[in-house]
Amino acid sequence: MEYALDMTRIPQHIAIIMDGNGRWAMERGKERTYGHQAGVETVRRITKECVRLGVKYLTLYTFSTENWNRPTDEVAALMGLVLTSLEDEIFMKNNVRFRVIGDRSRISAEVNKKLDETEQHTAHNSAMTMVVALSYSSKLEIAKATQSIAQQVKDGLLHVDDINETTISQNLWTNFMPDPDLLIRTGGELRISNYLLWQIAYSELYFCDTYWPAFMEQDLQKAICSYQQRQRRFGKTEAQVEDEKNEK
Ligand code: IPE
Ligand code: IPE
Ligand code: MG
Predict the structure, then answer these.
(1) CA 226–ligand 3 middle distance (angstroms)
(2) Ligand 1 pocket: which of 19, 64, 79 to mutate (most atoms <8 Å of CB)?
(3) What is the enclosing helix (H) or strand (E) of 143?
(4) In what order do the strands lie in the sheet with 182-185?
(5) Distance between CA atoms of 61 and 132, rounded to whole angstroms?
(6) Is 19 a residue of the active site?
(7) How far is CA 101 from the centre of its chain?
(8) What is the value of pTM for the model shown?
(9) Choice among 6, 21, 67, 219 that is catalytic
(10) Active site residue 243
């Protein structure tokens, strides 16, 4: 089924919790890693579709700091996949800039090098920015931002009374992009799992049961369709939002 989308109201920033790789594989009698491999294909499909639709930022939850506690062989397989799947060609063909956010200190030198190279090679691509959250924890990100702000105060660069919401946003790893308009979680779980806690304060949330490897372009369209049927009020009344729309 094709979804009739309003191309003037495509979310600028979509964040996705790509969940369900392991269960998808187990249901097929395969190893969990097989699901992660299939998940890479979905990343390619969805990236292309986002570019086609005109999405500007796509932030993908790829590996959480909590995921370091998984069995060593699964962690190794996931890091191996990061290495092999970061092909310049995909980014160059689709004019996609690559960025990474997360606790880089826990990532191996080899993977970090690949991440740096891919960021550098794609720095001038402009259709869309794909942000990979790797070794990511939103609580850690907020703690690091707090450290950085405290240091700026200590160094006399910032006054305590001048710390506001913008200061915090500017000190997060995500400071180069706007907050997500739409957050999608695949795989059926109804939780946030330490993802972009500050940034999703006013995002529209969309949960679906489909496992990530089975998530298709149409599923993305369905999520955007749901997003387009909602009224974002940001605390105002329905009438106020309608009036503002008519004034435009
Ligand atoms: C998401 O799929 C990918 C990562 C967390 C790395 P999972 O591996 O969590 O798959 P399920 O949720 O166990 O099915
Ligand atoms: C969240 O998935 C992290 C990623 C998708 C990378 P998990 O599968 O780790 O989440 P929980 O632990 O079930 O909440
Ligand atoms: Mg999971």
Answers:
(1) 24
(2) 19
(3) helix 138-154
(4) 96-101, 128-136, 57-64, 13-17, 182-185, 204-207
(5) 6
(6) yes
(7) 9
(8) 0.98
(9) 67
(10) no
User: 32-53 and 72-85 are packed helices; what angle lies between their axes, rounded to 10 degrees?
Assistant: 30
- CATH of segment(s) 9-137+174-247: 3.40.1180.10
Q: How far is the CA of 39 from the centre of ligand 1 (A)?
A: 9
Ligand 3 ion local residues (Cβ < 5 A) = 19
For ligand 1, atom 13, the nearest C-alpha belongs to: 22
The one-digit pLDDT tens for each residue of the chain (248 residues) are 678 999 999 999 999 999 999 999 999 999 999 999 999 999 999 999 999 999 999 999 999 999 999 999 999 999 999 999 998 899 999 999 999 999 999 999 999 999 999 999 999 999 999 999 999 999 999 999 999 999 999 999 999 999 999 999 999 999 999 999 999 999 999 999 999 999 999 999 999 999 999 999 999 999 999 999 999 999 999 999 999 999 98
Query: Domain locations in the chain?
Result: 9-137+174-247
